[in-house]
Amino acid sequence: MATASTTTALPVLVQSLSKHFGEVRAVEDITFDIRPGEFLTLLGPSGSGKTTLLMMIAGFSRPTAGSIQIAGQEIVHLPPHKRNIGMVFQNYALFPHMTVGENVAYPLRLRGVGKAEIKDRVQRVLDLVQLGSYADRNISQLSGGQRQRIALARAIVFEPKILLMDEPLSALDKQLRETMQIEIRSLHDRLGMTTISVTHDQREALTMSDRIAVFSKGRLAQVATPSDLYEHPESQFVAEFIGESSFLPLEEKNGQWCYNGRPLKLADDGIGAADTMLLMLRPERLRWTEDNAAASGDGNQFTGQVRTVVFQGESLLFEVMLDGGHTVFVRMANRSENVRALPQAGQSVALRLERADARLVRAEG
Amino acid sequence: MAQAAVLQSPSGSSKTIRLEQNREALEKDKRAEARVMFHLTVPALVIVGLLMVAPIAWLLSMSFVAPDGQLSLENYRLFFAEPVYRDMFLNTFKIAFIVTVLCLLLGYPVAYLLAITPAPWSGLLMLAVLMPFWTSTLVRTFSWLIILQRNGLVNSALVGAGLVERPIPLVHNMTGTIIGMVHIMVPFLILPLYASMKAIDGNLMRAAANLGSSPAHAFARVYLPLSMPGLVAGTIMVFVMCLGFYITPALLGGGKVKMIAQRIEESLSLYATWGPAAALAVLLLLMTALCLGLSLMLVRRLTPEV
């Protein structure tokens, strides 16, 4: 996604960065770069090292080894107050003894900005987060969503080179979270600030990011755009973490990948012969098919029996036991033309997977 | 809800009657509960009345009885007529002030250390603060007498190290009184301060640093204001306790340091009647109440709403 850059956004380079706590390797040898104005999300389960990495970029945690550069300038030796990086904290960390206006003015006062200009800039940024009339309120009078906006306003008012966000939306309820995701993204597009956000919520990462860095056990599993990550995950971990999927083990027969004795038509054949590979099945990519339409054309066919049907509002989820003995999930949109002919629990069915959707991923050791 | 029930019911009128009866019963339950709650507070009210209100009223009434048994303001006139009393009040406030300031300077860093130290060590530190707190004031005061005396630990060390030629007088004077009082008072400052510091979100200091504050600036603008409620509460506690302190000034002051509490005691052994002593006690009580009131106002002003 292109960003309409208004400030001069800067690139960030993280190189061979590690953080060890005694024996525990919280972050292990991580290298990636962030382009100027890019919105990068660090995604992973708790304990995967994503927050530790963010803390090192902010300067609250000293790396064991490695380098962090902003526009080519090494920052690992700088104390946090000299890094000029904006940050939105998980619990917002707004100063409770100051008003909204004083909170937002705090970084400007420190930078010796004149009184009139402070007033002007505070007002502008409060307008930007749609809380223009809140300058004189106390923090205790704000709702969760309003606190979130003020924290964001305080983090961007001094036009930092980089904006960091630590689980910025985790304290909000689902509906508000979804509104804020879109709001933050559009704010980012207007300001063009290089942004690094941390989350464990895949939906949030997919919605807001230009690219997503997936973390697992202190290591970087994959960095890619949201759609790349979803369509071409490299490992079972990434495929499981982004979206839903079922996996089928494969065997090699006569130079062909097969499942349950049947050769498969794959999107991408020869890869990773050295690793154990699994076939990834996204639930929404499987379709019902007539039993004898068979594996005609560019499709693969699987047969099995429906175990359970779960109604989930906008869609229905089917648990199907394949004849090969593995369970897969199938998702169908809840549309009238679909619903008419849906199978019931216990019914034998045939499933079709297009060649383009038949992707292999590396199994996790 | 009630309406819906009535509408659905074929015999609507009987339903309405039942709901009416229910409302009366619920009202009765509420009154009964309030009665029980009041009865439960009676023991506490009796204790407060007998042990707090009655003695103070008695003290107050005695302070208006002159030595000749007549009702008069003689005891209070004595206080304003004789400068020695006024000087003693001033002296008491001076000592309380010095002790409070010293407690602040010593207690704040200790409370801060307690608040930031991780779990197993903070427990040990807290124990170190509380141990003396649990020991009798009398025992601690006598210990200071031994440590600070002419041939005591401190003086022999100072002379031995060649820092002073002769032992310096550390006890039976103002110095000794203040040292002893600070030692006894400092936990009363540390405990509320620690509670207040523990409640400060660690991310606030990080946020301040992130926004550009040096550690010293972040402390002054964020940490100190947020620890203020505990600081003020502890300071008041120490100051007020100092005003009425008796044992330590009596023992370590060696008769040279006069505070009000001592004068009250002397007044009792000197005069046959309780009038003058009662008047002094009432005046002390009033001033203490005044201090408390002022500082409570201050706390309310300083407490951030979270």
Automatic annotation (TrEMBL), chain A:
Keywords tagged on the record: ATP-binding, Cell membrane, Membrane, Nucleotide-binding, Translocase, Transport
GO molecular function annotation: ABC-type polyamine transporter activity; ATP binding; ATP hydrolysis activity
Keyword Glycoprotein: no
GO biological process: putrescine transport
GO cellular component, one term: ATP-binding cassette (ABC) transporter complex
Pfam families (alphabetical): ABC_tran (PF00005), TOBE_2 (PF08402)
Class of the enzyme per the UniProt entry, highest EC level: translocase
Domain ABC transporter, first and last residues per copy: 12-242
Catalyzed reaction equations: ATP + H2O + polyamine-[polyamine-binding protein]Side 1 = ADP + phosphate + polyamineSide 2 + [polyamine-binding protein]Side 1
InterPro entries: AAA+_ATPase, ABC_SmlMolc_Importer, ABC_transporter-like_ATP-bd, ABC_transporter-like_CS, Mo/tungstate-bd_C_term_dom, P-loop_NTPase, PotA-like, Transp-assoc_OB_typ2
Enzyme Commission code: 7.6.2.11
Keyword Translocase annotated: yes
Purpose: Part of the ABC transporter complex PotABCD involved in spermidine/putrescine import. Responsible for energy coupling to the transport system.
PANTHER family: SPERMIDINE/PUTRESCINE IMPORT ATP-BINDING PROTEIN POTA (PTHR42781), SPERMIDINE_PUTRESCINE IMPORT ATP-BINDING PROTEIN POTA (PTHR42781:SF4)
Family as reported in the entry's similarity comment: Belongs to the ABC transporter superfamily. Spermidine/putrescine importer (TC 3.A.1.11.1) family.
SUBUNIT field: The complex is composed of two ATP-binding proteins (PotA), two transmembrane proteins (PotB and PotC) and a solute-binding protein (PotD).
Record's protein name: Spermidine/putrescine import ATP-binding protein PotA
Organism of this sequence: Tianweitania sediminis
